[in-house]
Every structure is written in C-alpha cells, then in structure tokens.
Specification:
The complex is a heterodimer of chains A (110) and B (109).
Chain A lengths: L3 E4 L2 E4 L5 E7 L5 E7 L5 E8 L5 E2 L10 E5 L2 E6 L8 E7 L9 E5 L1
Parallel strand pairs in A: 2-10
Antiparallel strand pairs in A: 1-3, 3-8, 4-5, 4-9, 5-6, 7-8, 9-10
Chain B lengths: L3 E4 L2 E5 L4 E7 L3 E9 L5 E6 L3 E5 L2 E6 L4 E6 L8 E9 L6 E2 L3 E6 L1
Parallel strand pairs in B: 2-11
Antiparallel strand pairs in B: 1-3, 3-8, 4-5, 4-9, 6-7, 7-8, 9-10, 9-11
Classes of the chains: A mainly beta (110), B mainly beta (109).
C-alpha cells in the first residue's frame, strides 16, 4: 500500500490565522481525500481532490474555509483558513488504494 | 447515505482476554475496512474485508455481506491493543468512504 507523509504533525495556531497541511504520496494516485476528526469523534470526509480539477466538498464544508490544491498525482495541500477554536481537530489525508492514511496533523487553535 | 454502527462503544479488558467488536452497516458495500487508531492518533489499516474471513496474528475479521455486519476478533489482548477501532465502508452505489463511530478499547495490565 501507498506510503503517505503528512506535515506538520502538529501545530498550535492563533485564531484568525491559516495553516496549510501537506500530504505527499510515494506513488501516483488519482484520488486523494481529506478528513477531519474532531476531539473524541469519528472521521468525517472534508473533500475529494482529483489532479487537474476542482476538489469536491462534502456537505458542511466550503472551499473558502478549506481550500485544497492538487498540483500533481503525488501531492496535495489542505488549508484551514481564518481558524477558530472549533477547528481544533486532527486532519488526515488518505489515498484511494485500500484507503491508506497519513499520520495526521493535530491542530490546536488558541 | 449508508449508515455504520459499531458496538460496544467502550470496552475495558484485562491483558490476555479475548474480545469481539461488531460493525453493522445499512446497505451493500464494495469495501469494508477495519482500522486501529493508536493513542497518538495514527490510523492503521488492519483489514480490507468486504466479505469472508481473514486472520493476521492475534487479530481476525469476518464480514457477512448478505447480513450487513462485520466482526473483529482480538485474542490474547495486549496493552498495545488499546485505542479506538473504526469500521469504515464504501457503499456499492459509489458513496464515499463512511466511518463508524468507533469502539474505544482499553487493555489493562
């Protein structure tokens, strides 16, 4: 299965700022997925990112808040914009093959 | 969309005990996977098992697709088995990968 590197692994950010999370895969994949896991909760899909097209967002998530880039078949970024304490979560990227996951980014907004 | 339920929500075991975790889903699936999230938040893929039975060491899983459930068996549990176990499914009609609420397992020494 694919090896996924995600960074940063954790960060503490001030409210009102933005953080960009990077996800690098060791092989080319068509689809990449971004998930959010709020404290004590399960994982929720934010959006699906295909190379060369706009990301597809799930209900409750919008591009202005979570812009995604997918410049090639091995890399994607998720930005959490204008952060508030409610954005404190673990953010994970995943790829299509057997849904392998990166190690996650633990974000705390203060 | 497809619904996923897991039971029990919480489980506390003594080291060496066996356990069974259950996942029920509401529709036919193309993909079902079990994951373990360790206390550091890392999500580890345990089994890809849309149907049938698989075993890997002390862990095994069975999915009965026609009855829409899957079971994860943990034998001779160890403290390192602690964490949250998630079942996740992808429906047969192209729905996105949906996670269940998880079972939080604590194995005591």
């Amino acid at each position: 299965s694919a090896v996924i590197s995600q960074k940063p692994s954790r960060d503490i950010c001030q409210r009102g700022t933005s953080l960009t999370i990077q996800c690098q895969v060791d092989s080319q994949v068509t689809m990449m997925f971004w998930y959010r896991q709020q404290p004590g909760q399960s994982l929720t899909l934010i959006a699906t990112a295909n190379q060369g097209s706009e990301a597809t967002y799930e209900s409750g998530f919008v591009i202005d808040k979570f812009p995604i880039s997918r410049p090639n078949l091995t890399f994607s970024t998720l930005t959490v914009s204008n952060m508030s304490p409610e954005d404190s979560s673990i953010y994970l990227c995943s790829v299509e093959e057997y849904r392998s996951f990166g190690s996650g980014t633990r974000l705390t907004v203060v | 969309g497809i619904q996923v339920e897991q039971s029990p929500p919480d489980l506390i075991l003594q080291e060496g005990a066996n356990s069974t975790l259950r996942c029920n889903f509401s529709d036919s699936v193309n993909n079902l996977q079990w994951f373990h999230q360790n206390p550091w938040g890392q999500l580890i893929n345990l089994f890809y098992i849309p149907s049938g039975t698989k075993q890997n060491g002390r862990l095994s899983a069975t999915t009965v697709a026609t009855e829409r459930y899957s079971l994860l068996y943990i034998s001779s549990s160890q403290t390192t088995d602690s964490g949250v176990y998630f079942c996740a499914v992808e429906g047969s009609y192209g729905q996105n990968f949906v996670f269940g609420p998880g079972t939080r397992l604590s194995v005591l020494p």
